[in-house]
Amino acid sequence: MKAKNRTAAIVASSLAASSLIASCASSPSGTETPQSWLSYEAPSRTTVYKFDFGGAGAADGFTAAGADDAYSKEKGFGFRNTAGVRNVESAGEAEKADAVEWIDDGKGMKSENTFAVDLDSGIYEITVTAGGPMFRESVAAEGFFHVMDLTGGVNGTETWQMPVTDGQLDILVTAGKKDTRYALSSLEIAKVETEKSAPAVWLCGDSTVCAYYKLPDDAETFQYGRNGWGQHLGKYINPKWQVRNLATGGQFARGFYTSGQHESVMAYIKPGDYYIIAIGINDKTYSNESEYYETLCAMIDETRAKGAVPVLVYQQGRAQDVGKNLESRWFGPKMQEVAAEKGVKLVNLFKIAGDYYESIGADGTMALYAPKDVKDASKGTDTMHLSPALADTLAQFVAREIPELRE
Q: What are the strands, taking DSSP E only, across 303-353?
């Protein structure tokens, strides 16, 4: 299929998805926006700090923070170990033109090689912007992951809310992918006028759920690249919820549980939060059915112990499944068993997406999966990963199945 024909097929299939979803009474893409969404007012925010990392000074409105700026109580901010960071150039303009790169000390998320900022206790909104020419990084705060696989080069940005209770915020940047470099161009901190963080939807998942960021050499063809449905979910639920997507490519249940991702969720999840566990595609490769079962049960039990709500998502199939009448994929039946035993809500995205794929046919389905080469869609289809259009559609399906998030 040529690139222009593929584009037409994606548009046609996306329209079909909108039509299909709009036919459902609880449709997230219906014409009426819930009144609760319209009446929502975000708490006010007051900027406390805007740090411009790197050695070229500060852009207007920012405070300079170079690799040689050691922490001091008098200053109220700085690097705890200036030997563990260095100034580098970056690909943007103004505060994004340079960055500070962290040097790997082998300690990962638990490294003490942090940038420390003195803050009064309270709820803060943290915004980080990736730096460097072609870096991949995960960002931790207070010893736990908050952002996974942020991309430098075109200055990927993420924002989250968190409490600061000990008078200081410690920010750490670690590798987003093995053997990649990592840096930040800027850090912005705003005090949120509220007593607790916004309710959150936490995501456990793999490459079909995680967030993707533009890379410098594919910015013009990114529409042919990959997305995870998790990065679209926020558009289809009440804006009072913050989506905390800790999914990463290639991940499996036990890996998510032991690598610090699940630990980070448990550190900050609150009563009333939701924890959507959409994982299983890679488990047959890296794990086994027994370990998968045990891990899901542990995640559910720990979530409930925190007063939060677990939701399991039986993941969608592959592009070539259309017409094969498959009853299951991955460890889906085992996830269904866990859901029944634990009394947990199960979103059967395998069936929901499968029914949709049947409705648009094999060609329409194939057109909605990502290409093998993001720079040349004519090279064929990656039958596992999602195009932005399909990721958006699956996000709508998931939102529709959890109406509590839309109230």
A: 309-314, 345-348
How many whole angstroms separate alpha carbon 112 and alpha carbon 140?
A: 11
* Residue ranges of the chain assigned to CATH 3.40.50.1110: 3-40+198-406
385 noted as active-site residue: yes
φ and ψ at 67, to 5 degrees?
A: -65, -20
Cβ atoms of 328 and 375 closer than 8 Å: no
Residue 238's Cα: distance from chain center in Å? 18
pLDDT tens digits, 109-150: 888 899 999 999 999 999 999 987 667 789 999 999 999 988
Q: Assign 294 to helix, strand or coil.
A: helix
Catalytic residue among 359, 373, 378, 382: 373
The pLDDT tens digits of the residues spanning 375-402 come to: 776 788 888 888 889 999 999 999 999 9
Helices (H), 237-288: 253-258, 261-268, 283-286
**Catalytic option among 207, 264, 287, 387:** 207
Query: How far, in Å, CA of 295 to CA of 334, rounded?
Result: 11
Query: Catalytic site residue 111?
Result: no
Identified catalytic residue from 138, 385, 387, 392: 385
Q: CA-CA distance, 212 to 223, in Å (whole number)?
A: 12
Q: How far apart are CA 205 and CA 225, in angstroms?
A: 19
* CATH 3.90.360.10 at 3-40+198-406, yes or no: no
Residues of the chain falling short of pLDDT 50: 1-31, 218-224
Amino acid occupying residue 296: L
The answer to whether 122 touches 163, Cβ cutoff 8 Å, is yes
Query: 3.30.70.3270, 3.60.110.10, 3.55.50.30, 2.60.120.430: which CATH number matches 45-192?
Result: 2.60.120.430
Q: Is 69 a catalytic residue?
A: no
At residue 199, the pLDDT reads 94
Q: So what's the pLDDT on residue 215?
A: 57
